[in-house]
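User
New here, explain this?
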Amino acid sequence: MSSAVVSQLDSFGHHVPANRIDNHQLEKHFHLEPGWIERRTSIKARRWAAEGELLVDLAEKAGMEAIKNTVVTKQEIALVILATSTPDHLLPPTAPILAHRLGLSHACAYDLSGACSGFLHALVMADGFVRTQKKAALIIAANILSRRINLSEYNSAILFGDAAGAVIIKPSMDQTKGIFGINFSSDGSAYDLISISAGGSERPFAPEIPLCDYKMRLRNGPAVFAQATKMMAHCATLAMMNAHLSPDDIQYFVPHQASARMAENTAKKLGIGSEKIISIVHEYGNSSAAGIPLALSITHKTKPFFGGEKILLTTVGSGMTAGAVVLAI
């Protein structure tokens, strides 16, 4: 009897805007003492898109790098998922024009909105597609959060950056590769801890609505931190159980790229050593769903994977929606 098809991660790509915003600029803007941001967030800088730079531009460059780095041909890529919370338009979705610009107009293409959890949701959905259809998939997570932050409120404005990260997964018969365990959860009781209150169907655009209501608001930072670490640790524990692996079996831990303290606290809850954490938040800030594939791609450039490493990914996003994936590369 033949073995089942698995989805094997085949390549990475990423792109960040050239415009680097260091802490000094924001501390001056918000009248904060020097070093205040890094002490509280571990973030030193973030990238913000230039005027006229679109989400599809970032996503295209990340996707092109992943395509350049793969042995998979464009004709073999049958699915494109774009995980984003900041599409260029409310309608139409961005993924079809992204696929067109990448030379993948033959592929199914759609947007997925899952806040910071979007990449993991997209990865698992693509995994099912690859295994059943036996065709490759391109997953891109991209955000331009700099256009959603409120520059009159420092608590969220200091955190977020713009970026795109991409991976290609392909069908494989190698049973030592692919996704071994997953777990997802949500907690709607904390639904509005991070939100943009206007612009949707409940409060569509109206002249009387203040502009700040169309911007991101972080209501309770400590509550977000506590809920995020709790949910990430819970999902990660169950994902490892589903994979029949222990923390000692994990070579790399890639948590949501929100803060070093959040990563370290979650790792401690899981019993994973801090030396296994992959974090790029100090230089790129929180780019939501793009953070995990960005971290993977940057790390792979300096220390290539594809040695059978078992990697634990876990994240949590606005909503609150959380997830974890254990995979072997």
Q: What stands out?
A: Residues 178-328 form a domain with the Peroxisomal Thiolase; Chain A, domain 1 fold (CATH 3.40.47.10). The chain has a mean pLDDT of 94. The chain is about 30% helix and 25% strand.
